[in-house]
Amino acid sequence: MAARSISVFKTLKPAPADPILSLTTSFLNDPAPHSHKINLGVGAYRTDAGKPWVLPSVQEAERRIIEDSSLNHEYIPILGTPKFVQLVQGFLFDNSAHGNTSKLLSQGRIVTGQGISGTGSLRVLGEFVLNGTSTKKISIPNPSWANHEAIFHNAGLEVVKYSYYDRETQGLHLGKLLEDLRALSPGDAVLLNVCCHNPTGIDPTAEEWEQILAIVEERQLLPLFDMAYQGFSTGLVEDLSVLDKVSQMVDNGKIGNMLLAQSFAKNMGLYGERVGSFSVVTASDSESRTVASQLKRTVRAMYSSPPCYGSKIVEKILEDDALRGQWSEEVSIMRDRLKNMRQLLYDRLVALGCHGPGKDTTGWGHLISQQGMFCFTGLTAEQVGRLQQASVYMTANGRMSVAGITPANVGRLAEEIASVMV
Ligand code: PMP
Prior knowledge:
By secondary structure, this protein is α/β, with parallel strands linked by helices. About 40% of the residues lie in helices and about 15% in strands.
């Protein structure tokens, strides 16, 4: 008897491959000897030897977890353990070392929950904006981390874009950026990157931030900060300066609220442990209780409660001043290495007499003025394609993960780039 059943997936089309993950596949399938290949695709920190780095402070935290007989694998609360929430809130919003005078914490006006790293935290906030506010719209930079659009779209928001990058100058397109923000309606959410913008590495200067925040105030926009690279620009505490400013704007009644999604993936090297947080700044402690209840409802239906191994590591590091200090030093090591690799590449390109696409005398000034893990080279898709034939892999938009550069490969990298510039 002929089967009557028809697969419900019969007409399903394959989803497009993730461009960054498929780049890794091409890199792995490249038959060239491993030592010859250069992977500048994935945004994960690598040592001078091109290896992942488990931070010694994290290893110490893990040792303490194993020895701590009070710990177990029970479910933790929907918004994370009270200890995690208290430590992370203090770490993010109460930096007296930084002269932050925000009273928001002591007034009970910040609700924080542990999220599933940065991605999960952004998704929770996206749903919260949709269900908890009157806006249905978020504006994200153009370009932005490729996942931002998908995360907020899947959360049910309308996603629009504001200008960010100026190909002409390899810098920020401030005029257009301000114009685009001005066109938004009061209450609309605007995604702002705290530092080390992905994919461009271009961050607003302090003066440019003043102008951006003036529009946020003028238009009464809802700032949603994404902080995936805290510590990779200037320092763990120093990189919080824009958050301090905006907290004070809320404190002073200039704007009503602010949202933050934060990740420990990069700065603690806890990528696969999926630990981060989301925070909502409210108008009062009673509003905080309402917001917390709504956030719990969102999380409960999405993943019930967060994972608890990565969060235990964060707790062990943040609760001990000595271990926290050690971690901060280790973040400096990562930050300095990335800066050194930018400089080395710049020096090599200049020494080769290769002129870059920028407007400064060498055309490569943007390599060293950009911040963090990513460098937007200004190379065209065609040039990136030619580099791939020489086993040098970066995304088609010319974004290079600086972490993939090492003292051993920078010379060849500069030569290959120079050869596609002619
Ligand atoms: N925001 C930005 C800008 C990112 O680049 C990333 C990671 N690539 C994230 C958020 C989220 O990362 P994760 O979910 O691993 O914390």
